[in-house]
Structure formats: structure tokens, C-alpha cells
Amino acid sequence: MTGREDFDEGERNDLAPGERSKSARDPVRGISGLVIGLILAAVLTAASFLISTGSAHIWAPAIPVALVALAVGQMGVHLVFFLHLTTGPDNTNNALALAFGVLVVILLIGGSLWIMHHLNASMMPAWQP
Amino acid sequence: MTIFGKLSWSAIPFDQPIPLVAAGVVMAVLLGIMIWVILRGHLPYLWKEWITSVDHKRIGVMYCVLSLVMLFRGFIDAIMMRSQQATAFDAPGYLPPAHFDQVFSAHGTIMIFFGAMPLMIGLMNFVVPLQLGARDVAFPTLNSVAFWLTASGAFLVNLSLVVGEFARTGWLPYPPLSELKYSPGVGVDYYLWAIQISGAGTLLVGVNLVTTILKTRAPGMSYLRMPMFCWTALATNLLIVAAFPILTATLAMLTLDRYLGFHFFTNDAGGNMMMFINLIWAWGHPEVYILVLPAFGVFSEVISTFSGKPLFGYRSMVIATMFICVMSFMVWLHHFFTMGAGGDVNAVFGIATSIIAVGTGVKIYNWMFTMYGGRVRFDTPMLWAVGFLVTFVIGGMSGVLLAVPPADFTLHNSLFLVAHFHNVIIGGVIFGGFAGITFWFPKAFGFRLHEGLGKAAFWLGLAGFYITFVPLYVAGLDGMTRRLQHYDEPSWYPLVLISGAGVIVLFAGAFAQATQLVVSIRRRDRLRDETGDPWNGRSLEWATPSPPPHFNFALLPDIRGEEPYWAVKERVLGNWAAEPQPRYKPIEMPRNSATGVVCAFFATAIGFGLIWHIWWLSIVAFFGAYATFVLFAWRDKAEIRIDIGEVAEIDRKSREELKVSRKRQDPAPTSRSTKDPYRLGRTAKEDGASGRGDAGPASKRIVVGYGFWIFLLSDIVMFAAFFAAFAVLSHRSAGGPTADDIFERPRLALETTLLLFSSFTCGLAGHASDRNRQLPFQTALLITAVLGAGFLVLEVQEFADLVARGAGPERSAFLSSFFALVACHGLHVGLGLLWIGTMMAQTWFKGFRDDIKRRIMCLNLFWHALDVVWVAIFSIVYLMSISP
Q1: CATH 3.40.50.700 fits B730-879, yes or no
Q2: pLDDT for res B697
Q3: Stretch B658-665: mean pLDDT, rounded?
Q4: H/E segment holding residue B631
Q5: What DSSP string runs through B798-815?
Q6: Which parts of B550-594 fold into alpha helices (H)?
Q7: Which segments of B321-456 are extended strands (E)?
Q8: Which of B4, B184, B209, B354 has a Cα-to-Cα distance from A101 of 20 to 30 A?
Q9: Is the pLDDT of residue B101 over 50?
Q10: Which CATH class is domain B9-522?
């Protein structure tokens, strides 16, 4: 009962979301991480804009797929470089919560699209959008 | 339009005697209670000890009280419906259709949102921190805010009885009936704002309890040592966090339709009312499990305690709970099989629904095996649990039947369905609530409830349930649909009469409950619980005295050993008796705060103003609420310190009492249960190894950060609902402008650049705050604010341009969904700017205090998350729509 209430919070292998792990806390590395993130995000954004204008060299149906891929990639960049999410053991809870959220988001958007597409397809022609 | 908006004397239904008399009686009773409280001088006590209390136990009790009052209110609606139908065979009955429609809508709304949910939330609030060995929930003041917001919603719903009207659309306001065109009155608006306000409260509960369970457990309380109730509470609150934002978004869309002429769900301009039904059930099905999972937890505790055995199959129970938690997001279409999706969609969701029943089946067997071979004591909580097992299996079976799409086509919207969901909600949630209340009542108040009257209430409730709802199953199979104000089919009449008789039995049950409470209070000295452990319980809450001191545990328990809950209790009590003076430490507890009740007051005013179009009231109240939060954030002392002397004194007293009463109690049958042959999991090996995450409560920084992270998760799900609406409606431009006509790349590029750079500077500000550098911090945050404001200006400009060109949200469903999604993001940016301002001021005047740094961390998370959402918006909403 006694004895262990003096536990040291530092021994906990756990980090608040958005915090860098101890090894990455020196100022130079911190700011350089932000800079790398900014550059990567800017490149991905520019790529999205560029691709969306279309060109003779890009197969048109691939554009939406590429846009989704680039968006997911950029969200990943933001999560890693701005929100400092890692897969390390000190981030288990944070990553699990995110995974649960992503699952729900995918189910909600994907499920709605699938269900509503089916409903629309079953409508009489005059009512089809 | 006057200063009072749409409100006038005609809003009070002088021509309808029934609601007016009912409301008059209720108001007289309330007024009487208030006068009594004031005259007897109880007001300061109530204000200090309850209304402004942030103690999770007090808040839990207040939730349960609110729930019991609202359950009674909803039950009166039920009496009216059953008596109406009993008198309306070939006759008009006594309730005109318009009134009858309000009654069934109010019944469903009140029972689910203000009866069942507060009951479960109240129990979780009271029990979970005690079971985890925590001193309070993670965010005590938010807990108070959450409760008062729920109370505010309940108040608005009941106010509609006297001022105006309630919705006539059912408990889920399906469009197009709920659209302005067909429901022009304030009824639906009452529904919308009451549910939004209480929904915000529920979301806060979810964030709070998830964080409490994951981050503030006592040392050694690893995940697989948590009592089952904590596991089901975890699953429930994860569901709240992930599902309630969908409800918020969906109701917001309906609100936009009604208030600002949007076209999400209207008949015209490309609106799609089926999208409402799709979205609302994407929340609605998880909601079912939000209600029933905590009840499953209660039964797990009750059955194990009263069988004198550990829960059978603990690990399979954990797996089943988490399985239900995830699966509950994959079955929502079964609520609208008949809406017209194709066979393959129906088949997938039908099979998924049957599969989710497997998880529940596992639990039923586990409970039965827990009883098997145990020394079962049939006290009142156990009676409710056994009654539940039988009743719930019947309800579950009828549910599996309804999960078969062809069967559902004949039973859909019939009384069979009504009987089914009452079967699971009464037999599961309400029985669970009563079991829980009887079980934990002595812990909360220090005396038991009267056993005989409790048993009478159980038998009357059980019999009344069957007499009421079995005839409805039969009537449903005979083709009687739900919500009939009158009917002329003779074969239904006797069934309806029997069902009405059942309600009389149920009323007798409710009367027995009320009598039980009164009698128990009067005889509290004889029913006193001095041991702190009246039922020979197995989890940590029984190790505290009844009622527990407000800090719960004088010393944080240290959980280790083979059979954690049971063994810990034994050792804790043994230690208390043996050790003369434990090494106490001062305890810091959160200070009471009026923030909750004041916020709820303003929320009520906002809601009332919006319902009656009294805009000035809503605006004033919004700033009042904002000012309350700023004041709360500004206070310097958030905690009171309880000195060692006081802790020792309180603890010594309770240990004395426990020592005396433990001697009187017969020795606990430990040997029997530790050698239990049915015990699965939790081996000595596992208990000896110290797992990750059981080092005791996390630091405040982690707790706050994680709580905010969970909140952001729910925010993202809300955006996902708006995204889903956009994805479905984006092609419905109704002959109006399409994406190609209105989206401009240059402005979008500029907006994106501004927001991207603001994320960078916000990161710099966070960096500066880590190193306590005031000037760089202020500069970086100021630049962030300027960039964010620039973004907002561009967005507002864009919107203004569109509206001026006749491409406003009222033009088509496509534009409605676009405006709502992008404006929701813009609104977040706006709130972020307000927040940046307050953080700059706080840091400037108070320096880098720990609590301020925690808020800066949250602000950082918020701002970065906004940017993540914007990535999805600019690439998928804008660029994908205009790419070739």
C-alpha cells in the first residue's frame, strides 16, 4: 500500500500527443523537424494543384486516385512532423485512438457512399440524380 | 419580427387542458420544493455541495436523479399512449392526433436522451474512478459542465410542454416531415437545440471517461486487471466520442435546412432525405450499444459478486466488449432495410447484424457460467440481473429475427419492432440501471435500500414488462403498425387492452420504487452500512468507506497479486488494521466551480433564443458562455490542498469503523474463490510482471493532452459526416452552378499557403513555449493569428462572391453541402483565433505556468488538426471536383 505511491511520473513510458520524445527535444532538431514538415507539405500541396490541372501526360481517371493518395500522404506528413506522432511505445494510446477514429471515418464515408449509391441506383429513372 | 421573435402569448396552449394542467402541477411541485429549500436554508448547502460540486460521485448521483425524474416523465407519456390506444378502437380516444404525435415523440426523446443515457452515465461517473483507484475523473470541471448541459437539454424539452409545442416527428425527426415546409412550428426546433446542447454534454462525458480510464488508473491497475464495468465503460465512451459527432453534424444539417434554407434533406433542389436516415442511424446504432454496454458491465459486477465468484471468462468478456464496440459501426443499415438499397447491401448488413449478436451471446454464457457452481444470493440487484438474462435473450432473439432482411420487410415499423426495442432497452438498460442503483446505493449514501420493497419493485417491473410488451409482439405480427392514434381492427383490440393493463402493473412497480426510496431514507439508521462493503464485493470501490471521502482514497491503492480486486481489498483492509500510521501525503483536489451551471444557464438561453428566433438573446448568451470560460481559465488556484493531518484524521476514523464492523462480518470466503476452477486468465505470471501503462496516474500534461486528442478525434468524425454529405450530394447541383463554375484555383492556393504557414508558425510558438521564451512565443502566435485571419478573410470573400452570384447554399444540395463543410472548418479557424487571443493574453500576464503550457499544447494540436482537415478539403472537395 505504501511505498509505491512515490512513483516517478518519468518512469511512465508515455507521451502526451503532439510531444516529442525526450531524445528529439533539443531546439535545433525541433525546429528542423518543423522545417522539413513544411517543405514536404508544400511539395505535396504543389503536386496536388499541378496534377489537378490535368495534362496530356496524365491519364484522367488516375487524377482522383492521385489526389487522394497525395492528400493521405500530406496528412501523414502533418501527423509526423507537426503532431509528432510516432509508432513508438510511448505513443501507443495516441496512435490507437487515431486508428479508431480513422476506422470510423472510413466506415462512415465509405458506407454512406455505398448505401446511397445503391439507393440512387434503385430509383426510377426520372428520379435518378 | 419583434424583440421576442416568434414568441407570444399564443405559444402557451390555453386551449389544451391536459398539458396545461400537467405543467401546472409540475410547476407547483417544483415551486413548492424550491420554496421549501429556501425556507429551510438548504440553498447554500445545495449550491456549495451539489450544484457547483465537481466531485464525480456527486455528479454521478445528480445524473441518476435527473434520469429517474425523466424516466418518470417519459413513463407518463407511455401511460398516455397506451390509454389512448385502449380507448381509441373505432373511436377518437381522448388525445387529438397532433397531441398524440407530440406524446410519442417526447416519449422516445426523453426516454433515450434524458432517461436511459443519464442513468448509465451517472453510474459510470460514480463507479469508474472508484473502481480504478482514482481520486476523480480526468477533468472534474468539464464533468460538471457536461451534467448541467444535459440538464439544460432536459429542461428545454420539458419547457416545450408549456411554451409552444414539441416535435410531432418521432424521436428521430425524419425529413421531409421535419423540414420547415411540413413542420413550421417550433416543435422540431425544440428537439434540435435540446439534443444539440445535451449532446455536447454527452460528448464531454465521453472524452472525460475515456481519458480517466486510459490515463489515471491507480498504480498496478493494468488493463487486464480492470473490473468488467470499467471495460464496458471504456467501450461505451469510445462509442460516444466516435458516434455523437455524427448526430451533431446530422442535426446541424437539418437545422441549416430549417433556419437558413439549405437543401440537405429537402424534396427540392437536389436534397436527399434518405441521407438523413443514413447518417442518423450511423449514430443511432452505436447509440444502442452506448446504452446497453454499461448495463452489461453492471450485470458483470452484480452477477460475479452475488455468485461469490470471479467473473467467468474475463478475457473473452473483454474481447466481446471491444468486438461489439467496433462492430456497432458496421450494422446501421438494418434500421432501414426497407428504404430501397439493393439485395447485396441488405445482405451484408443483415449478416453483420447477426454476427454482432455473437459478442452478446458470449456474454450471456459467461454470466450463466459465473453463476454455475457459485453460492448465489438473490438480493435485489441479483434479481434484476437474472430477470435481465431471461428477458434480454428474448429481446435479442427477436432482434436477430429482425436482422433478416425479408423478415424485416414484413415487421418493419410494426409493433413487433416496438416490442423488440423495448424488450432490449427495458430488459437491458433499465433493469441494469435499477440493478446498479440498488447495488451502489449504499456506497453513495451509506445505507442500503429497503430489500422487501426492492424485490416488490422487481417482480412488478418484470411482470408488468411482459404483460405490456408480449401482446405488442403479437399485435405486430398481426400487422398493427406503430404510432397509431386510432384503429378499427377488432383483433388488435384485446391485445391493446392487455398491454394497457400491463402498464398499470408497471405503474405499481414505479410506485414501489418510489416508496422504497422514501422508506429507506426514513429507516436509514437501521439500513446503515458501516463496513463499506455491504454485498461482500470484489472490486476496489468496496474497499472505501460508505460514503467514500471526497478524495476516495487516502492513499492510492497499489494493485498487484494474483486475484487483483478481491486480494487487493483483503490486503488493503488488513493493512489498515495492522499499520498504525500509514505514510500519508497531502492530497490536491479540484476546487468546486460554478462554471458548469453558469454555462448551462447560458446554453439554455442560447437554445431558447434560437428556438424562438430571439437572436439578440442567443448572441448575448454566447458571449456570456465565452466569458465564463475565459474567467474559468483565468483563475489562479484550481485546486485545494488537503493537509496530511486532515487526511489522516478522515482515514483514521473510517479505519476504526471498518475494523469494528469487519470483525462482526463473517470471514470472507477467499479460499473458496481463489481456488475457483472456472477462473480463466489472470495467471500468477501475468500479475507478477509489471505491464506497460500501469505505473499509476499519468502526469497532468499527458492527461490533458490525451483528453484533447480524444476530443479532436470526435471533431474529425464530425467533419467526416459533413464530408460524407458532400460526397453523396456533390453531384446534385439541381441545374445550378457546378464545381467547375465556382471554384477558383488561385484563391484556393493562397488560402492553402496561408494555413500551411500558420501551422508552421504555430509549431514554432509551441516550441518557444517549451523553452519559456515569451517574445518569440508571442510573435509566432501573432503571426499564426494574422495568417489565420487572412485565411478567414479570403474564405468569407469567396462565400460572399458566391452568394452574390446566386450560388449560395440555398441554390442546391451540392452548394449546401459545400458551404456547410467549408464553413464548419472556417468556424473552427474563427474559434481558434479567439483561443489564440486568450492564450496570448494569459501567457503575457501570467507567464509560462504549467496549466497555461498545457493549454498551449492543446491549442497547437487544435491548429494542426485544422490544417489536416484543410488538406482533405482543398484536395478532395476543391481540386478533385474541378480536375478533368
Answers
A1: no
A2: 85
A3: 57
A4: helix B615-634
A5: HHHHHHHTT-STTS-HHH
A6: 564-578
A7: none
A8: B354
A9: yes
A10: mainly alpha
